Amino acid sequence: MIQKPIHLSYDHRVVFTHGAFQTSNATLRDLVAHAAELRGPSKVVVFVDAGLLAGDPELTARIERYFAHHGAVAELVSAPVVLTGGEACKNEWAMVDKIWQAINYHKICRHSYVVAVGGGAFQDLVGFGAATAHRGIRLIRMPTTTLSQGDGGVGVKNGVNYFGKKNWIGTFAVPFAVVNDLDFIHRLPERDRRAGIVEAIKVALIRDGAFFHYISSNADALAELEPEVLEKVIRRSAELHVEHIASGGDPFELGSARPLDFGHWAAHKLEPLSGFAINHGEAVAIGMAIDLLYSANIDMLDAKTCERILSLMERIGFVLWSDFLDAHDETTQPVILQGLEEFREHLGGELTITLVPEIGRKLEVHSMDEAAVLDAVAKLRTRAQVLAKASDAGTQKTPATTSSS
Questions:
Q1: Radius of gyration for the chain, computed over Cα atoms and rounded to the nearest angstrom
Q2: Which of 153, 177, 200, 291 could make an SS bond with 13 (beta carbons 3.0 to 4.6 A apart)?
Q3: What pLDDT shows up at residue 405?
Q4: In the 8-state DSSP scheme, what is residue 186?
Q5: pLDDT digits (tens, 9 = 90+) for 214-271
Q6: Could you tell me the sign of the dihedral formed by the alpha carbons of 276, 278, 280, 284, in that order?
Q7: Rounded Cα–Cα distance for residues 389 and 137 (Å)
Q8: pLDDT at residue 400 in the model
Q9: Do residues 59 and 25 lie in contact, with contact meaning Cβ atoms separated by under 8 Å?
Q10: DSSP codes of every residue in 85-135
Q11: Hey, how many other C-beta atoms are within 10 angstroms of the C-beta on 220?
Q12: Between these two residues, 117 and 331, which has the higher pLDDT value?
């Protein structure tokens, strides 16, 4: 046997900016400038999430003007390629083929750049296409949602869904750069702007108690989606995610521990169960609630802290229940429990679940008591029923109060 260690070093660049496609903004130009100095203009192909164009119809024209202005450094090989985004894009293998066709047709090579402008699922799709063409083309991610700017878009994973399972086919590939243009998140619908806050709460719970306290102190501002506070939370969330990837010792997840997936075993099952009507952030909020109540059930987390976290998520605007949690399979077993087995398979055979024994600290366990999990689900159901009754009572009282005044 010949055995030699291979040591690799990556630079993980995450840049925050506003107005990335304004011609006066040098962020993208400077990222590719060093290659241009050696070989002339670098070829660039840009893929754009079609969902962005509804709220920003001038985006593709703005991209073309930007690269025309900086043509000495970056050559845009065609008009931006517009593809369907959203989780559904990861279910269509033909979408990967379209990306490969564009890369092949325009002779994009490993010294060229693929730029992906879109949400987290779109980043997964285009990232997979870029990572597998020519064994890997330089990828510049431009995430456009709070979820992707604060979490998934700054990571090193790409993938598409297969066999009805999330990200069953995929790669680990450090992007050449991530450009978080914060202007994008303020164009999002309210539901999508809110979604990324839960990933910030998640990473605060497992890594940074002070950040959790900041989120708590600014809960009302976050509930109102105040831009300044939202941007600070997304930036710190991204920073903590990148810190973990770069310093956690397992960026390509060769082991079985995935602490950044706290609350995700249930979320990954809940999303396809709902036909992706529940978005990722909403599913993670529910998944975290299940794991928090489970931790309280087994006396790992004190009930007061559990309630504090659940109340914070609700205060910011997350609903911690879905009727899909009540789905049963043909054997009458709750379908949500299948998420544990699928998570085990995804991890390579050993189940490793991250739980939170206290704010700012994580603990990994290798088994889950299914009865205690189902009890946590039952408590969530009861909680939702109580909140619904309180809401109905408040609605019924409103007209009488108004008329008496």
A1: 22
A2: 177
A3: 31
A4: G
A5: 999 999 999 999 999 999 999 999 999 999 888 877 788 776 667 788 999 999 999 9
A6: negative
A7: 54
A8: 44
A9: no
A10: -SGGGGG-HHHHHHHHHHHHHTT--TTSEEEEEE-HHHHHHHHHHHHHGGG
A11: 11
A12: 117
Tokens representing 97 are 């083929």
**C-alpha to C-alpha distance for 85 and 253, rounded to whole angstroms:** 26
Residue 324 structure tokens: 């899909």
d(CA 32, CA 222): 35
Alpha helix ranges (H) inside 258-350: 264-273, 280-297, 303-316, 338-346
CA distance 98 to 117: 16
Of residues 275, 57, 39, the one with CA closest to residue 187: 57
What is d(CA 306, CA 386) in angstroms, rounded to the nearest whole number?
Answer: 17
- The two three-digit tokens of residue 212, written as one number: 């959790």
Distance of alpha carbon 152 from alpha carbon 157, whole angstroms: 8
97-120: b or e for each residue (b if 16 or more CB lie within 10 Å)? ebbeebbeebebeeebbbbbbbbb
Contact 91, 58 (CB under 8 A): no
Strand duo 42-49 + 361-365: pairing: unpaired
Q: Is residue 210 predicted with pLDDT exceeding 60? A: yes
Looking up tokens 């043509």 gives 71
Residues 373 and 354: their CA atoms lie apart, in Å, by 14
Q: Which two structure tokens, joined as six digits, stand for 106?
A: 């325009």
Query: What is the distance between the alpha carbons of residues 57 and 62, in angstroms, rounded to a whole number?
Result: 10
What is the residue type of 123? Q
Which residue from 16, 268, 281, 279 is spatially nearest to 141, judged by alpha carbons?
A: 16
Say what the alpha-carbon torsion angle 317, 319, 320, 321 is, to the nearest 10 degrees.
Answer: 180
DSSP string, 371-383: HHHHHHHHHHHHH
Cα-Cα-Cα-Cα dihedral sign, residues 235, 177, 50, 267: negative
